[in-house]
Structure formats: C-alpha cells, structure tokens
Amino acid sequence: MLRVEGLTKSIQEGEKTRFLFKDVSISFSDHGLYVLEGRSGSGKSTFLHILALMEKAERGKIFLDGEELLKRNEKGKSDYRRHSLGFIFQNHHLEDTLTASENIALPLLIQGEKEKIALKKAKDSLLKFFSKKVDGKKAVLLSGGEKARVSFLRATIANPPILLCDEPTGALDTKNAHFMMGEIKKYSKTHLVILVSHDRKLAKKYADYLLLLEDGKLLFSKEKEEEKMLYKQMIRKKRGKIGSLLWFLFRKSIPKDAKKSVLTIGTTFFLFSFLLLFIGFFEGGRSFLEDGEDRSLLYLSASMSASKKEELPGSRLSLARSYRPKESEAKEILSSFENVRIENDYSYFFPSSLPYRENGYLKENVSLCPIWDLSLKNRNRSFLTEGEVPNGESMNYVLINEELASSLQNPIGSLLEVSYESSFECHGEEEDILLSFRFEVTGVVKDFAFLSLPRIFYSYRALEKSLESQTLKNGKTLPALFKEASGEEEWTSYSYLLFYEEKEAKRLKEFASACKEPFLITNTLWTSLEGFDALWQAMEGSLTPFLAMEAVFSFFSIALIAYSSFLEERRFLSLLDALGMLKEERVRYFENGVGSQILIGALLAFLISFPLSRLFSSLLEGKFGIPSLLVIPYSRFLGIPLLLPFLLLAFAAFLLFFGVRLPIYFLSKKSLAGELKDE
C-alpha cells in the first residue's frame, strides 16, 4: 500500500513563493489506474518524482506497506526504485546508443540479472508488441510509437507493483495513444498505476480514479467516487550483483563516447609519456655516472703540479708562478698512499693529438693516453668490448676506444703507426726528440662519449723504457734530465704523473679536493664527471616539485574530462537513478569507463616510451656524443618488467581516485531528477 501524508512542495517565482501542492494526503490501492490531471506547471511531474524519491518535498511523509520511505538511506531508496517502481517518462528517455532490447533489459541488469538472460526476456517481450523485428534497432532510429512501446516494456519488464507514467501518450497519435492506454489499463488490473495526463477525454475513458491537482490541492474528480482502499503486502526482493550491468554499460559506452575516449587516452598518454621520459632522463644520467666507474678504469692517472702566489711589489695583486717540485717533495705529499706511483710526465712533449697511419695510409688525428700497465691485473675488465688485454711490457701492443675502432675496417690486429718529433731548450741548447711507434691493436674498450676523440691506450712503463734508450745531444736521456730538473726555470711547466690502483681512486680523489697550495692534483675525468654530477644533482632536485606539478596537472586534466563526461551523461544517469541504480554503482560505471581509458593511455605510454628512449638516446649521441642518457627504469622478475608497471598502476590509481571517483561521487550527491522532468 502506498500512502502520502502532508506532502508539501513549493517553488520560487521571482520574489514570491508558490505552492505546487500543500499538505497533500492520499492513500492508493494496491491496483487500479489513477489519472492525475492539472494545468501545465501545476506540479504533476514533480509529484511523480517525489513519489519515486527522485526529488525531495519540503515536508510530508511517504509510506509503503507501513514503512516511511523518506527515512531510508540512499541504498534503501534505490532498492525501492529498483524493485517496487517502474517509470514511463514523457519523452521516453531511451538511451539512443542502445538497441530496443538493450533499453528494455536495463532494469533487469540493474537488479543483477545475467546479461544473456536479461536480453532474452527483453526480446521475448518485444514480440508481444511488434510484428516486425526491432530488438536490434538503435533507439535513436525508432518512431514515436515504437519509443512509447519500448518505454512501457522497460518500465514493466521487472513486473514492479507500482507504475508511474508521466504523459506517456503526449506525443502519440490517436491510434498509438489508445494502444498505449490499453496496455497501461491491463497492467493496472493487478498493479498500482499513477498516470499524469493532459488529455481529459482519454483519461476519463481509462481511469479508475481521476485526481485533480489545482491551487496546491489534490482533489478527487466528481466523475469518480472516492473509495476506501485495502492493500496487499509487497515482498521486497534481494539485491543482486550488477557486474553484468557495469560490463554491459562499459561496452556500450565505447562507441558512444569515441571522441571523449580518444581525448582521455591521448591526455593520459601525453602525461605518462612525459613523466616516463623525464624519469628516464634522470635515470639515464645516473646510469651514465655509475657506468663511468667501469670506463674510468682506463684513466687511473692524474697530474700533479705546483704553483706559488707571489705578491707584486706596491700592489694588492698577486701572481701565480708554477714550478716543478722535487720528486722527494711529491712523494712526501703522497706518503699515505701505498698504491700510487709517481712518474715524470713526458706528455709535455706529446701533442694533444697527432696523425696516425693505418697499414701505411695516413689517417685523422689520434690521442695517446697512458696506462701504467696495460695488463690491468686484478681489475674489472667489463670495459673491454672486443679482443684481449695485451702484455704491458711492450709498446707494440695497445688498446683503442670504440671511437677509433669505428674508423677501422678490422680493428683487432690493425697496425697503427704514430711518429712525431719535438724540440726543447735545455741548459741553453736545443734538444730534439724523435719518437716513432708501430702499434698492433689487441682490444677495444668502452670510453666516455664526451671525451670522444679517437684514443690509443699505451703502456707508460713501456714508454719510459723506450725513452731511456734514446740519447739526446748532451749525452743524456729525457728521463735523466727530468730527475735533474727540479727547480730549474726552463722546467717549470713540467709536472708528475700519478698512477694509482682502482682501490685508491676514491681516496685519492678526496685527497686531491682537499689538497692545499702549492700542490695541485688534477684528473680530466674527475673534473668532467664532477661537473656532470653536480649538474645532475641540481636537476634531480627539481624532480620532486615537477612530479607534484605533474600530479596536480594530471588531476585537473582527468577531473575536467570526467566532469564533462558527467555533464553529458546526466540524463542517462538520471534514468539509471530512476531505475534504482545506486550512487556508488554510477561512480563505478564512470570508473570503469574513464579508468580503463586512463590505463590504456598509460599502457601505450609504457610501450612507446622504450623505442622513443632509444631514438632520443641515438639523437643525443649523434649531436652531443652522450649515449644511453635516456634510460627507462625497470627491474625484471622471470623476465617480466616490474617497476614501471607498478609506477604506472600507482599513478593511474591516484588519477582514478582523485581525478574521477571523488569529483563524480560529490557531483552525484546532487539530485538528478530535474533531468527527466519535462514540465
């Protein structure tokens, strides 16, 4: 039994308040056709929406089987619409992208019916009304009469005990109007039907009870006598699962919202791609520095020089004067290091680069880089990419870097000839140095790209032996002159070379940073990597605020898409609400739609970021000589990448919750009933 007491509803018209109805009380029987009449704007549709709990009254009570419905929570109200109520709307409000049978099946799906069963029941019901097959016909293609019949079937497919009809014949011709009223009359024989109509003649023909809404009062028409009504107990059904419904709606939303889906996927793809490339950029820089530890094994040498500041007479300025300290002084400075060798630096006589010959043919310039012992005993040889490490006792066998190897047809075994001559003044005499070497390449090593000159790595120990065998004009050798040269003016530019073992690298580097005047210990690689590391750390410091900005931007972008989707879907959501779908279920509907698009965009970004990173890295290498600077980070377990999917999932979950669920949840709190009102 449905009963209302003291129902009151008003609207604001300018500065005045007008009551649509005031203190309305009425009891309805468990079956029969109640036709509600009244002028346009009198509140008839509003009355139906209040009975459906889709709109709130200012005061009053609504009872079903003695239970006050307005005291139910949102779930309880949805249960009422889901199982006890059917609604025929004035303009039918069919979902255009769904077929006739799919529209009819919606109430069954909302009740938890399996999609296959629900669609079969819907198709069977269509056979009662249509001679031709319309079940596969989109609602947008249906005629007015067909839409009216489909709307009736949707409202009654679940056999609700109460049927509300808002102008179901308003847009129909006479034939279809009578057909529709005939079917509604049949349904009212065993169910309660409350129908709004403007057609008084039609209403009088089919109505069991005529009601008039006028001047805020609900009156029985004189043509019908008010009766005392008895009611049957309505059995409330158990709520079913709606997974089938959500999957059904998700599938149907894809073609309907193709443009919006592309926009959502594209936006997410852009956001995730930018994020991944940004993270990959910093990960690549970090890997570049870490990888340098292996390649730095080729540069286990440093230069040691000295410089004193001398005050200029009568001036605040000072002048730096370099000098060559005694070997004993240098050794004293490094006395705490057991694994550091101090050698004379003969590189002064070497040009920074010089031409070489390959198998007799003159080639571009090459740099000579010293390694104390090419045998590199007890060292990590991961820097070796091809060939073998030669014996360090001979100047005839060398290693070359990949830059030089790329210019050779067959690097391993290639014969390279380097010759040069130099002169210097010693004790007032001009001395000439002529050196010529014939190298055989035994191996290729990784080198730093930013030091990308072609390089030959030779044994410095072997060079020293070679120099000891060459006598100058004064009868002495170059190594002998070096030993005598401390403090002499013409030798002030010369320094020492320090060769150190791998285990001493870190401590020596720290020592060099703290070393005070007059001594200066330098290493080209240290300087380059320190600058690169400092730059990278400074840039990494911006990662956190960037990620925060990325998250905020992503949130507003996704939230805006979700909000626009919500506005476009308000009418359909109102229909689902009228059919008994819970607010949480509508939120899940949006999550399934927008959320899946977010995940698709993230997945595409994940898949495309790898070839993009390789392309970007190759461009950097070609333009700036910096390979593998962009590295997309991931770890593997049984060959499966783990880190990136986790990051993507976490970020997508963040966007889904904060960008979709929360906005839509709060938006859904607002009444949607107005979207279905035609009055």
Describe the structure.
With 679 residues, the protein is an alpha+beta fold. The protein has three domains: 2-240, P-loop containing nucleotide triphosphate hydrolases (Rossmann fold), CATH 3.40.50; 257-295 and 539-676, no CATH class; 301-500, no CATH class. It contains 19 helices and 24 strands. The strands form five sheets. It has a six-stranded mixed β-sheet, with helices on both faces. Helix 6 links the parallel strand 7 and strand 8. Helix 3 packs parallel to helix 5, helix 5 packs parallel to helix 6 and helix 9 runs antiparallel to helix 16 (543-568). The protein is rod-shaped and about 135 Å long. The two termini are 27 Å apart.
Core attributes:
679 residues; alpha+beta; Rossmann fold; six-stranded mixed β-barrel; 42% helix
Give a brief description.
The protein is of the alpha+beta class and 679 residues long.
Beta-strand content estimate? 15-25%
Low-confidence stretches: 222-240, 634-642
| Residues in helix, % | 40-55%
Main-sheet strand order equals 6-7-8-3-9-10
- Summed over residues and divided by their number, the pLDDT gives a mean of 76
Helix and strand arrangement:
Layout: E1 2-13, E2 16-28, E3 32-37, H1 44-51, E4 59-64, E5 67-68, H2 74-83, E6 85-88, H3 100-110, H4 115-129, H5 144-156, E7 162-166, H6 174-188, E8 192-196, H7 200-206, E9 209-214, E10 217-220, H8 243-256, H9 258-295, E11 301-311, E12 318-323, H10 327-333, E13 340-344, E14 354-358, E15 361-371, E16 384-387, E17 397-401, H11 402-405, E18 415-426, E19 429-445, E20 455-459, H12 460-468, H13 478-484, E21 496-500, H14 505-514, E22 519-522, H15 524-540, H16 543-568, H17 570-578, H18 583-624, E23 636-637, E24 640-641, H19 643-668
Parallel strand pairs: 3-8, 3-9, 6-7, 7-8, 15-20, 17-19
Antiparallel strand pairs: 1-2, 1-4, 4-5, 9-10, 11-12, 11-21, 11-22, 13-21, 14-15, 14-18, 16-19, 17-20, 18-19, 23-24
Helix pairs in contact: 3-4, 3-5, 4-5, 5-6, 8-18, 9-15, 9-16, 9-18, 16-19, 18-19
